[in-house]
Write a structure and sequence with these properties.
CATH class: Alpha Beta
Distance between the termini: 104 Å
CATH architecture: 3-Layer(aba) Sandwich
Largest sheet: 6 strands, mixed
Number of strands: 10
Strand order of the largest sheet: 1-3-2-10-9-8
CATH superfamily: DD-peptidase/beta-lactamase superfamily
Low-confidence stretches: 1-7, 58-82
Number of helices: 12
Mean pLDDT: 86
Number of domains: 1
Structural class: alpha+beta
Oligomer: single chain
Strand content: 5-15%
């Protein structure tokens, strides 16, 4: 008996260690299996083909944005375009509309289309705003809008070279027509010269590049520019290309309010519009209404806190001007005028200036609020 008891060994730590090792290995194995399963199930959960139990669903803090299926979470979503204004008429400035009517009545043989809209509050004035009249070079503004839409969509590059061909060579304003056929111009130069010096060949290059006249007219229609149509290559001295004052104002407003183009596209549009060298109609008339000298309208307006980004048109039988007006208090307005009359009749341009001058009283800045101390 003594011999048997002495031969038994103490239990020691062997068994507990083996049990602990088994538990660790089982835990690692279960972790690997569970992780692999969740990884495989992840796409199905995102598609909502598979729903996890509530204890596996991640908890989201109340102030933490929830990420949707396809869009990234936005901590501070951008405000709506209402903060930038909209192309929306709310309150007619009847006194200004009647003033325009009286000015036009002095020359009844002239056909007039006029429109102004304060983007921030919807005040507006109008005179035959939807009458389709010869667009002249004013149609280059909506053409610029469509071209930059193509850039936004990735179908056109700002530096893409456009090749001069016999088809697109246009007479009149500009210098590109004097270059040899086959000359290549980057798109940014073509777009800029179309506005800066109203180059007709540059305009035709862009018309061709965006798909031609039929495609361009369809794009105008989709933008709500129902009176704006390109029926001939520029310079179109017979006036077959048409537009209206409302269309011209709308084309500019859609960009500035963010309803058309990206932020980068809007910047390109504004930069190009700011290069126009002709400023005697809308800018000159506004300056006249503000009581300024007629030396250099752009510089004189800038001193008063105003800026006008405009594009004119002139084919002798029709004159036009349309632009964005920035006021000293930060508000903005769009205005457009188209007048058809006898060839090279100075009454047409003078009427545009007088109508622009009549806008000055309603486009004065609001007094700055008193400074908080």
């Amino acid at each position: 008996m003594a011999s048997s008891r002495s031969s038994q060994k103490p239990p020691g730590w062997g068994r507990p260690l083996r049990l602990l090792l088994r538990l660790v290995l089982m835990g690692v194995g279960l972790g690997i299996i569970t992780g692999s399963a969740l990884k495989l199930a992840g796409p199905a959960v995102q598609r909502r083909d598979l729903t996890l139990p509530s204890w596996l669903t991640p908890r989201v803090k109340p102030d933490q944005p929830v990420q949707s299926d396809s869009k990234p979470a936005i901590l501070n979503p951008p405000s709506s375009t209402d903060t930038l204004g909209r192309f929306e008429t709310k309150q007619e400035l009847t006194a200004l509309s009647k003033r325009w009517e009286a000015l036009a009545a002095q020359d009844p043989d002239l056909q007039v289309s006029a429109f102004m809209l304060a983007l921030d509050d919807g005040r507006y004035a109008q005179l035959n705003p939807d009458t389709a009249l010869p667009a002249a070079s004013a149609i280059k503004t909506p053409i610029l809008l469509v071209a930059i839409e193509e850039i936004d969509a990735g179908r056109l590059s700002w530096n893409e070279p456009l090749t001069l061909s016999k088809t697109v060579v246009g007479g009149g304003a500009g210098w590109m027509a004097s270059k040899p056929l086959g000359t290549r111009f980057p798109t940014y130069e073509v777009a800029t010269e179309m506005i800066r010096v109203s180059d007709n060949t540059a305009t035709n290059l862009l018309i061709e590049r965006v798909g031609g006249q039929a495609d361009l007219n369809a794009r105008f229609n989709s933008l709500g520019l129902s009176a704006t149509k390109v029926n001939n290559w520029l310079p179109d001295l017979k006036g077959t290309n048409t537009t209206s004052a409302r269309d011209l104002a709308r084309a500019i407003a859609l960009v500035d309010t963010g309803e058309a183009l990206s932020i980068r596209g809007r910047d390109l549009f504004r930069e190009v519009m700011g290069t126009s060298v002709t400023n005697r109609l809308l800018p000159g008339g506004l300056l006249k209404g503000l009581g300024g000298s007629q030396g250099k309208p752009d510089d004189s307006l800038m001193i008063k806190g105003y800026r006008v980004l405009n594009k004119t048109g002139d084919i002798g039988i029709a004159y036009a001007d349309a632009g964005l007006i920035e006021l000293p208090d930060g508000r903005r307005a769009v205005a457009a005028f188209v007048v058809k009359g006898p060839f090279n009749d100075p009454r047409s341009t003078e009427l545009i200036r007088n109508m622009a001058a009549a806008m000055a009283p309603v486009l004065k800045p609001k007094p700055a609020p008193p400074r908080q101390r």
